[in-house]
Design goal:
By secondary structure, the chain is mostly beta strands. It contains 1 helix and 7 strands; from the N terminus they run αβββββββ.
């Protein structure tokens, strides 16, 4: 995994990350507990939020076909880029969507991702 960063922070990663934590009413986690990626389920879709990337996932639906049912997998995407992820109940994801940026996203900002099915941390500092 990469070392900790905040997209578009221009060298002010710690300060901006702290501001995101305040905005989410969260604490700033220790350097070895900062989250790089989470996966979670929302309305039957499996989503992935990775810092520095847009939100993506898959939708799996059962469809009746002649002779039985099949599972149809469809990619799902959102144009918002993930800027930070904070642990909690629920986990919170900060993106560059409105009101922070100009991106129009289907997700609020920050949004609640519930309890993830997987969590990946940044590489700890050397």
């Amino acid at each position: 995994m990469p070392r900790f960063f905040v997209p578009h922070a221009d060298g002010k990663d710690e300060r901006i990350y702290g501001q995101f934590a305040d905005w989410c009413a969260s604490h700033v986690p220790a350097a070895d507990r900062r989250i790089y990626r989470i996966a979670w389920r929302h309305d039957g879709d499996d989503w992935i939020a990775t810092v520095g990337e847009t939100l993506s996932g898959v939708s799996v639906r059962r469809r009746r076909r002649e002779g039985g049912t099949v599972h149809v997998t469809t990619p799902v995407h959102d144009p918002a880029t993930v800027l930070a992820i904070f642990a909690g109940d629920p986990y919170l994801v900060v993106t560059d969507g409105r009101p922070l940026g100009s991106i129009i996203s289907a997700w609020l900002n920050p949004f609640m991702a519930g309890i993830p099915t997987s969590v990946t941390f940044f590489d700890p500092p050397a």
